From TrEMBL:
Keyword hit for Nucleus: yes
Entry keywords, A to Z: Nucleus
Compartmental location: Nucleus
Protein name: Unnamed protein product
A single Gene Ontology CC term: nucleus
Amino acid sequence: MITICSADDSNFFLGYFMKLADIDESILNAIVAWGGMFLVGRKNELSIKYFNNALELAKKNRSKTSFTKNDYLISLTFFIITMGSQISTGDVQTWYHLFLQFKELLSTYGGLTKFVKDNLHSSEAKLIISNFLYHDVMATQSLNSGTLVDINEYKELFQQRQLLDFDSYILDPLQGCLQEIVLVLGEIVNMRCKLKNMRIGIDTMKSNYLNYIKNNKSTNHASISMLGKIQESKNSYLANVNQIFNDLKIKINNTKPGFSQVRGLTNNKDELELHLTLFELFQIILNIYIKISIKSISFHDEKIQVLIPEIKTRLDILIGTKLQSPLCLIFLIGSIICIKKEDRLAMEERYERLRVNYHVGNMVRVWSVIEEVWRRSDLYYDKLNSKKKNAGDDHDDDVHQDDDEAEEIIDINVFGDESEEETCVDWCDVVDDFGWNICFS
């Protein structure tokens, strides 16, 4: 299993998986399939056979009339294994269907909170829920529709109930000390979705207004009223953007590494330093993320560009260690903001080092997204610079438009769209255009 644990004996899930493989055939087949896919490729016929066998056996298990708490633990663990096998080998579709089944099974039980309440003394149950949170927040689908579970339920479980405070020390194999900042990432995901829906509503109002102007050939009382509502909605949107951005910035900067997770590392200063470096890097990346995803600030912004050296320095520390496994999202955001050729080449060199040390398929997918964002960014700014160059000629042409057209332009400008210079390429659009659903776990 791809984790941040420095040794197999500290990987709680690995030991648990092996124990279950002795008693459950679906788990055994799923592990064998994962190993085959990872070593010889996800299209290997024998690996696919074991994977399909695992699915059939797990489906048969879930059809039992009597389903105990232990049966739930086994079935939920099955989804963790099969999702991991798909994500780590570059799948961009099947893993999410498995994740939805994961969620459905938890809902059948009564939901996350009930599952935790009924398994208060089960470390396995706690880490299963932690795993679910991590995949929910790291899925690109969540950026479009929000997390599957309300972020407030996650916060209650992990912040108020301190779900990862174990009686004896256990390192979370996926999140490590990142749990608090992962919750903030979940808030960013949901706030981005909220703002996107607000923007869609405003764009719809604007489209209706333009159609009205076109059909009526001029402005009138009704069109002025429509324009007023558009402006009111936009003011509300911008106020929300600023409030959400400021709130998230404070939360990001106030996050602390999970004490319950780092306390077991105090005797290993080198490993502790790696965990803290990863945490710092996540803070840097999320501060950039809210700039480009909440405020749509250009990659060219000086406050973004000045952070690139800090990102590269910390990546150099982490690449080649066990702490490289959570770097997918970090690497994506840290790379797409690179606008200079030398910075892009530097990130490409780090990608090659990461690819050699970390043979995971979703990182290859991430690199494809990065390259496409670079291509679109270059194309966009080439067109923008060309437009600026020809701005004088365009201005002369505008002077000769008839009065109705001029009046329409005035009304559109009242709407006050942000300048094109303050726009950045949305990497989520690239993922959607590819038809992918990536998980950055």
